[in-house]
Amino acid sequence: MAKGSQLSQLKSALSHAGITGNNNQNGKKRKRSVPQEKDKEKRAAKLDEIQRKLNPFDIKVTKLKHDVGGRKLKGVTGKPAQSKTAGIEQRKKTLLKEFEERHRAGGIIDRRFGENDPSMSLEERMLERFTKERQRASKGVAFNLEDEDELTHYGQSLSKLDDFDDIGLEDDDDDDESGRINEEIVKHMHFGGFDDDENEDNEEPARKKSKAEVMAEVIAKSKGHKIRRQIEKEEGENVRHELDHTFDSLRSLLYAPDPSATGSNSTPLGLSDPSGSSIASTSVVTEATFVGTEKTANYDQAVRELAFDKRAKPKDRTKTEEELAIEEKEALEKAEKRRKKRMLGLENSDSEDEGRSRKRQRGGDDLEDDFDYEETGWNGLGTGLEGDQSREEDSDDDGSDDNIVGQQEEDADESDSEDGDADEGAVSLLQKNNTPQKGKAKELPFTFPCPSTHEEFLEIVETVDNVDLPTVIQRIRALHHTSLASENKFKLQGLTGVLIDHILYVSSPPNPSFSVVSSIFPHIVALTKAYPIQSAEHFNRKLILMHKNLKRGLSEGALQPDAKTWPGPAELTLLRVIGSLWPTSDMNHAVVTPTRILMGSYLGLARVRSLSDVASGLFLCTLFLQYEQLSQRFVPEAVNFIVNSILHLAPSKYQNVSELPGSFPSPDFRSSHCLHLVLDAKSTKGLEVQQPNLSDFHTIQDHDAPSKLNVLALSLDLLSRYANLLKGLEAFIEVFDPISQILHNLKLDKFEADLQVRSTSTKEIIARLLKFSHQSRHPLMLQAHKAIPIPSYVPKFDSTSSSYLRHQDPDRERNEAAKLRNEYKKERKGAIRELRKDARFLAGVEQAKQKEKDRSYNERMKRVFGSLESERAEEKAMEREKIKEKKRAGRK
């Protein structure tokens, strides 16, 4: 490029590139041709190159410290002018718009119909809007081609129609049909035909028809269509006439007379009034007209008469729980009034007899539910009671197995009452006679007061048989339903505690009645579901009292014969009810958890003194088996007690506790107070193992050989069941291996075959489960994982000029952290730089706006001053003219 100013350099570059100057060669002038597209592109490229060379500051080159040949690096060369221009344009598109709209507040323009019309009310606006929406929706549905349903015409799918010859698009009117021409004729005849497929099939080209032939075919097809439509119309008329003639027979079916009604007042079937009365007189006239004059019946008249008939209404609806409770209470009160009148010999009034004997007439939708309580023998029992009783019967295979007798409840005059005086008073009733002295059986009343204490309940059921006890409780619940009065809720909550006390009362010796417990249990279930918190409080009070009794018995001495350390039949019944009433598989439960702790305390702390104690402990083990059926938790007290029971009853090779395998505690083994429990083979000759009657264990004697034999067989059976329950235990081998050794060292060879079979079965079950446990147990091994490599460190160079090695840290984590810090610093500097550019751009925008304001202000001021100056100049000129006029006048 030539030296000199930029202007001279630009001229020289343009001339050298051939863009400007004289390009003629040999002095000859050539005619300028029209530039082509390629010439334009070349010209633009040359101009760009000239511009780039003319301004060397448009390109910025970063000097490399070590230039390696053939290596391509990014960011070495840059174009700051273009980058700055691109940044400014980008900020104009984004930042400038945000800056201009920073003080803008968005708003919603209400364009709803009638919103800005003060003459319309709110109802009118809503009605008009609804009308507009329905109109818009109807238009959309009419032309909606995206509907899921297939488009049809006269019941035929449009997608299945190949042409429109036989679909009957023409009107039925004969006058309008003459002017219609078939679409196929227009397509193939008028336009010469454009169907290539048909032409391809024909080997010879189709002959062009004349106009006369075409018109003849059009007329023939039109007549054919007209005749076909006429035939279809006549067939439709024939079908309608046939339907009109057969309508009389259909009416005879619809309006068949009621067979139960006699005389002329019978009403048509299906159109009777729900109350049982005859329908309006118009229906009777209609029926007579339909049946009597079939030939003169008019269809339109029949339709108009049917429109005036009274429509049927639903007779019975589903009643709410409150309505059912009120009806049940009223029924019981009415039945009680009739019973009292009958007992006093008073005759019922005529109105009552009529009201009782009168029954409503059956209607078309009669469900036959208007029964009479006395005739059907209704006793006020709810529908849920039978289901609960059946469920209880299914869950209890044998009633005698679920109840056991142990120690008696504490005396009522114990001094250690603390905060459970009320509960002790309730449980002290266990010492009373269980069978109340009942006189002659009386008729069972229908109404009873709701008892608040157990004494009041005993007064109510004093003359009631045990069979009728569920009926009494059900009637009490029905008369005091929560929907009848607000205070009934608290009465029923107290009734739960009364029923729990009665369970303890009827299951206490000397005559426990477990059938009464089974009959009361469904009502306790229903009350517990209704009031779970209050029911749990009642059960917890009994558990606290039982725990106090256990502590008192242990303080007196666990080996004392009078110490009440084992639960009696009443307590065992309560524990059985808790297991059936509350969920026993929960990890923590407000009622079951204290129950499990109490049962474990009985088995772990109480000492064996008699066969009754063994029986009570085995019943607790049975309850534990029921409690842990789902959770399968390990209860060491239960397993330990079963093993000790076998050692107490069966003869073995062990003479003292030190010879026993394992670590099971056996404080009473071969002790003086347990020697009489050992079973003798001679005393069991000829005896068969039977299911033990646990309800009689509180009266059995320690020298009773059949009872000992049954208890020993029960212990072996329970041990096999616990083995099956705990087969998934991690420590199954450690727990049951000593037990297996004890079973193999029992001396049962001289006993009857039945007992030996049970013992052999138990040993085989435990041996098989131990074998499986040994097979599934594997020794612990170290975890197999990938070998950890030896860490290698980059040597640190102190004397080096390499910046790469100087910034490399041998510690990998510290090196990664340093990289993140450097990246953060880089991003922070970039963000600060961009923010400064944004601030500079906004400052320039503000400055430009201010300059524009100043310029417009100066222009306005110049215009004002110019107008003022022109006016002032004109004013001065006028003054000068006036002065001149005065001078002229003076000279004259």
UniProtKB/TrEMBL annotation:
Record's protein name: Nucleolar protein 14
Protein source organism: Lentinula aciculospora
Compositionally biased tracts (Basic and acidic residues): 34-48, 204-213, 229-242, 308-336, 869-884
Polar residues: bias regions: 1-12, 261-281
Keywords associated with the record: Nucleus, Ribosome biogenesis, rRNA processing
Cell location: Nucleus, Nucleolus
Pfam family, one: Nop14
Major location category of this protein: nucleus
Function: Involved in nucleolar processing of pre-18S ribosomal RNA. Has a role in the nuclear export of 40S pre-ribosomal subunit to the cytoplasm.
GO annotation terms (biological process): maturation of SSU-rRNA
Segments forming a coiled coil: none
Transmembrane segments: none
Compositional bias annotation for Acidic residues: 194-203, 366-375, 391-401, 408-424
Cellular compartments per GO CC: Noc4p-Nop14p complex; small-subunit processome
Region (Disordered) residue spans: 1-48, 71-94, 190-213, 223-242, 254-281, 308-424, 867-892
Family membership: Belongs to the NOP14 family.
Lineage of the species this protein comes from: Eukaryota, Fungi, Dikarya, Basidiomycota, Agaricomycotina
